[in-house]
Amino acid sequence: MFKTIWGSDKAVASVAATSKIFIRGKQKAAMTPSTQRIVNQLSALSASRKQPKLLSLCNEDLIKNRTITNAWNVYKRKLFQKRDEQFEKQYNSIKNAMEDLKQTSPELFELANAKEQKRFPLEMRIPTDFPPNQPWVYNYAPKK
Amino acid sequence: MLNRTNLTRARSLRYLASKRFQSTESSSTGIWSDFSKRSPSLKLSNPAIKKNIFDKIDPSEGPASIQNYSRRLAYHSINEIDDTFKVAYEYLQEQSAEKYQQIEVLEKQVAQAQSETEVKELKDRIEALLVEAEASNPEVLYNTSYLSSEDLDKSQPVYRQILKEKWEAFDLMVTMQRLEQLHVIPDTLPTLDPKVDVKVKFPHNLKDEFSSWVTPGEILPAFAVSQPPTIRIQEFERVDQEQLYTVVVVNPDTPDLATNSFSTTLQYGLANVPLNNVDNTISTSTLLTQGDSYTFQHYIPLTPEKNAQNQRACLWVFRQAKPLALDALAGPNTHFDIRTFVETNSLNPVGAHVWRQHFDRSVNDVRRSYGLEKGKVYHRVRQAHPVI
């Protein structure tokens, strides 16, 4: 067995094999000649030329566009208003029902408002770079 | 970008249209084409442009708003814009019609209202609704966007509202900046809560440079201000009854040798000037016909002495609570105390303007024409920090 200062000759051979594949810097995919031609053409153009052309509309069309935008905004606003009203109604009916339950049966109200037992509490695992020394706590009891 | 958003909106709005407006074929039956109650000033006056907006732009003619013939022919409209516009117009018109129904109800309430405050409150609500009902009308949009403010009918609340927004966006900011930088506030009056747009011009000038509206803070030569100015006071609030205005021009930079300081001189004083939303200008013709019944101090232009500093002509506009007696206002114009003047006459400052003057070669001529004595010549006082 021939030994070098780096280790066995087998290890050195494997390092040499990987260094052949290694390329310093960002790796680029090979381009087809047609793509390359477009890239060259674009690189010769200034940045402002590459922007999509600004639409120059006449006054009539600008007014039409603003009217369409206004109508669209009104339409959306009405939708949102309708949805908000629905939410408010729902909330109020829930609130009334709970008030009613509180009056008629306090035990059921307590049960309805009992906090759910969380199956996986937050303190069980916090994000770390490495796994914990004790990966799983078998006799875990939530903090009170 | 515009094209694409319009396309998506076109699809959504067309879906809306298929559900809501199946019966509506023509757009000429809605509230926005009914001028029995609405003012004709809400119309788009140019028939060619109106046709372009409400019908398609004919590609063989091009849009009427473009002047250049070849550019007009080369114009391409956006895809789907006309159909989408039709639906949008119908939708907005329906919203507007609802507003007009609310207005009708309020107008009936006005007729039955008991107190004056109630009437005012109702009228304010009607005005707000009128603005909402017309603000998205494309004809009104076109007029406010592309016509000059002079051509708009200020009796319409919607035009006043849009003009107010334009004023607040630029002219008001310029005016307030100049009033503060040149210390018109607080050298003349402590502060100003601006309510009206005040514009000043000197129409006797033949050169365009001096005959157009004066930018606040501009330095003007004596010949350019040698005749009384035309003052435009644009009210944005509704003026129901007659509103009277007082206008004064003061110069707070008159050298006062006795106290080695400066004193204020009243250069021009008008009172009891009736103005409203539409009739808003104190022009030369107003002064020629009714000038005597308004003037308590005839116009004397500022005539700064040689080597005196820049002098400010501060123009203040006040709303009057009641008519004033002109004889009581008249008095010596030197050592004028504007703060006491405002307090004793219970005036409400609503607008201001300022221009500046210094000695130039036309000052002596102006002095001669107004019969003033020959001006003094002061020593030149060099500034502490030389201009580099």
Automatic annotation (TrEMBL), chain A:
<comment type="similarity">
    <text>Belongs to the mitochondrion-specific ribosomal protein mL40 family.</text>
</comment>
<keyword id="KW-0496">Mitochondrion</keyword>
<keyword id="KW-0809">Transit peptide</keyword>
<dbReference type="InterPro" id="IPR019192">
    <property type="entry name" value="Ribosomal_mL40"/>
</dbReference>
<dbReference type="GO" id="GO:0032543">
    <property type="term" value="P:mitochondrial translation"/>
</dbReference>
<dbReference type="InterPro" id="IPR042831">
    <property type="entry name" value="Ribosomal_mL40_fung"/>
</dbReference>
<dbReference type="GO" id="GO:0003735">
    <property type="term" value="F:structural constituent of ribosome"/>
</dbReference>
<keyword id="KW-0689">Ribosomal protein</keyword>
<dbReference type="GO" id="GO:0005739">
    <property type="term" value="C:mitochondrion"/>
</dbReference>
<protein>
    <recommendedName>
        <fullName>Large ribosomal subunit protein mL40</fullName>
    </recommendedName>
</protein>
<keyword id="KW-0687">Ribonucleoprotein</keyword>
<dbReference type="GO" id="GO:0005840">
    <property type="term" value="C:ribosome"/>
</dbReference>
<dbReference type="GO" id="GO:1990904">
    <property type="term" value="C:ribonucleoprotein complex"/>
</dbReference>
<dbReference type="Pfam" id="PF09812">
    <property type="entry name" value="MRP-L28"/>
</dbReference>
From TrEMBL, chain B:
<keyword id="KW-0687">Ribonucleoprotein</keyword>
<dbReference type="InterPro" id="IPR036610">
    <property type="entry name" value="PEBP-like_sf"/>
</dbReference>
<dbReference type="GO" id="GO:0003735">
    <property type="term" value="F:structural constituent of ribosome"/>
</dbReference>
<comment type="similarity">
    <text>Belongs to the phosphatidylethanolamine-binding protein family. Mitochondrion-specific ribosomal protein mL38 subfamily.</text>
</comment>
<dbReference type="Pfam" id="PF01161">
    <property type="entry name" value="PBP"/>
</dbReference>
<dbReference type="InterPro" id="IPR008914">
    <property type="entry name" value="PEBP"/>
</dbReference>
<keyword id="KW-0175">Coiled coil</keyword>
<dbReference type="InterPro" id="IPR035810">
    <property type="entry name" value="PEBP_euk"/>
</dbReference>
<protein>
    <recommendedName>
        <fullName>Large ribosomal subunit protein mL38</fullName>
    </recommendedName>
</protein>
<dbReference type="GO" id="GO:0005762">
    <property type="term" value="C:mitochondrial large ribosomal subunit"/>
</dbReference>
<comment type="function">
    <text>Component of the mitochondrial ribosome (mitoribosome), a dedicated translation machinery responsible for the synthesis of mitochondrial genome-encoded proteins, including at least some of the essential transmembrane subunits of the mitochondrial respiratory chain. The mitoribosomes are attached to the mitochondrial inner membrane and translation products are cotranslationally integrated into the membrane.</text>
</comment>
<keyword id="KW-0689">Ribosomal protein</keyword>
<feature type="coiled-coil region">
    <location>
        <begin position="89"/>
        <end position="132"/>
    </location>
</feature>
<keyword id="KW-0496">Mitochondrion</keyword>
<dbReference type="GO" id="GO:0033617">
    <property type="term" value="P:mitochondrial respiratory chain complex IV assembly"/>
</dbReference>
